[in-house]
Specification:
InterPro entries: Methyltransf_11, SAM-dependent_MTases_sf. This is Methyltransferase domain-containing protein. Pfam families: Methyltransf_11 (PF08241). GO terms for molecular function: S-adenosylmethionine-dependent methyltransferase activity. The protein has helices at about 10-30, 50-55, 70-80, 115-125, 145-160, 160-170, 180-185, 210-215, 215-225, 230-245, and strands spanning about 40-45, 60-65, 85-90, 100-110, 130-140, 190-205, 250-265. The protein has about 260 residues and is of the alpha/beta class. The chain has one domain (about 10-265): Vaccinia Virus protein VP39 (Rossmann fold), CATH 3.40.50.150. The protein has a seven-stranded mixed β-sheet with strand order 3-2-1-4-5-7-6. Helix 1 crosses helix 2 (about 50-55), helix 5 (about 145-160) runs antiparallel to helix 6 and helix 5 crosses helix 10 (about 230-245). The two termini are about 30 Å apart. The relative contact order is 0.17.
Length: about 260
Amino acid sequence: MTSSFNVHDAAGYEQLMGRWSQKLAPLFIDFAGLADGEKILDVGCGTGSLTFALAGSAGLAEIAAIDYSPVFVEEATLRNTDPRVKIQQADACALPFVDASFDRAMALLVLHFVPETAKAVAEMRRVVRPDGTVAAVVWDHLGGMPGMRMMVDTVAALSEGGRQLRSRYLFQPMMQPGEMKRTFMDQGLVNVEEAELMIRMNYKNFDYWAPIAAGEGPLGKYVATLDAAERARTDAAVRDAYEDGRPDGPRSFANVAWAVRGIVA
């Protein structure tokens, strides 16, 4: 298995994270760079946030997109109207492309869900031409996602299972400062640079919790294991943390991501 992400429904993922990855994608593209005539690989395309942001660049020659989840591949394929975009199911650790096929390989909010992260980076490097770019971005779960920290800290205060969830969630691969940069360098990439990218996550109301309550993502997977009484207690506690003694309504949280890019020697 090459992905630890839990997905049941594409619409649920969009409410959970897809709408935020759409905001992050343009910042990531600016960081990774583009040039007319290039062939780009999107590793772990999900529902297509990065893929279709790339398609907004008229000068690109080709955009290949892969994902491990058939749910994501089906949804992204349904959304695609650009003949330059080719989407398929594939393993990030065994990319189905020959060496030096692309000018750039990019991974948006993916590598922290790949247990063999170094292997995935090595594969991205393999399929990019010499002097081409490999780039990736992941959320800083520990220090850069206060909205999600609010939820996992609340769950951790309720049970030992919640504390174990928090430990897993906050310390996924590639999330610590410099960790992804070191991995890129260890895989032979040169001129490796790291940056922080920030967006704001705006919620209209306690819809914040809805996709997680429906079982989406790693947090939703945990919630689905709770019995009825523990589920009710968790729902109430997270709502209380979100509302913070005020009426339900809009909340806004800054989200910080680590971005890294390197050049194929």
